[in-house]
Amino acid sequence: MTFTHATTLEIRNQCPYTVWAAAMPGGGQQLNSGQTWSINVPSNTTSGRIWGRTNCNFNASGQGKCESGDCGGLLECQAYGNPPNTLVEYKLNQFSDMRDFFDISLFHGFNIPVDFRQTTGICRGVGCLADIIEHCPAELKVAGGCNDACTVFNTEEYCCNFGDCGPTNYSKFFKDWCPDAYTYSKPDELSTFACPTGPNYRVVFCPDSLRLIM
């Protein structure tokens, strides 16, 4: 997938297991441990997402299912993934083409540690390296990850569809383990990061085993 004006996203799997990378826009691809997938996205992308899927099984037509992060049973995603999935979210060329904005969101739970940063290393990246699954509250544990409270309980307290909601005990749990991450539905300025627009970016699954390549 190529565009006249594009930003390159390099997606690396440094986990000791296979990850089925997913991207909107971009699709999806199986990444065995140590493999890399590069995609080009329009430089005016305003609602980009990247996440990893685990324990997937697809047939020759690219149809199947994943234990976590599944996107409608397709290898090449055409829609966002199901919780739990650790999300990288980004908006490119904002503020009159001056800034890129990005965050790591645990609002839909956690399944894989991840790091996101410029390939040039000009400004700080953002990461969630903790093994949240090991410490996940029993009521949020599911196969392949640690679910979010909205998905589990489906109440306004946790979903916060209306009104002025604040953090909950469950969102604070995620925040304690990954302080940079976005963990509930309302704006969190401390968890949204910006860089001058123009560079390419790298996503790394299980960055602790990579020692955060700069």
User: Which CATH architecture?
Assistant: Sandwich
| Count of folded domains | 1
The 3D shape can be described as: globular
What is the C-alpha radius of gyration, as a whole number of Å?
Answer: 16 Å
Structural class: mainly beta
Average the pLDDT over all residues and give the rounded result. Answer: 91
Give the CATH superfamily.
Thaumatin
Largest sheet composition: 7 strands, antiparallel
DSSP strand count: 14
Low-confidence stretches: 209-214
Q: Mind telling me the CATH class?
A: Mainly Beta
Strand content: 35-45%
Characterize the structure shown.
The protein is mostly beta strands and 214 residues long. It has a single domain (6-209), classed as Thaumatin, CATH 2.60.110. The protein is 12% helix and 36% strand. It has helices at residues 94-97, 132-135, 149-153, 156-159, 169-177; strands spanning 6-13, 19-24, 27-31, 36-42, 48-58, 64-68, 87-93, 99-105, 114-118, 126-128, 141-142, 145-146, 193-196, 201-205. A hairpin with a 7-residue loop joins strand 9 (114-118) and strand 10 (126-128). It is globular. Mean pLDDT is 91; it is low at 209-214.
Fold topology:
Blueprint: E1 6-13, E2 19-24, E3 27-31, E4 36-42, E5 48-58, E6 64-68, E7 87-93, H1 94-97, E8 99-105, E9 114-118, E10 126-128, H2 132-135, E11 141-142, E12 145-146, H3 149-153, H4 156-159, H5 169-177, E13 193-196, E14 201-205
Parallel strand pairs: 1-14
Antiparallel strand pairs: 1-4, 2-3, 2-5, 5-6, 5-7, 7-8, 8-13, 9-10, 9-14, 11-12
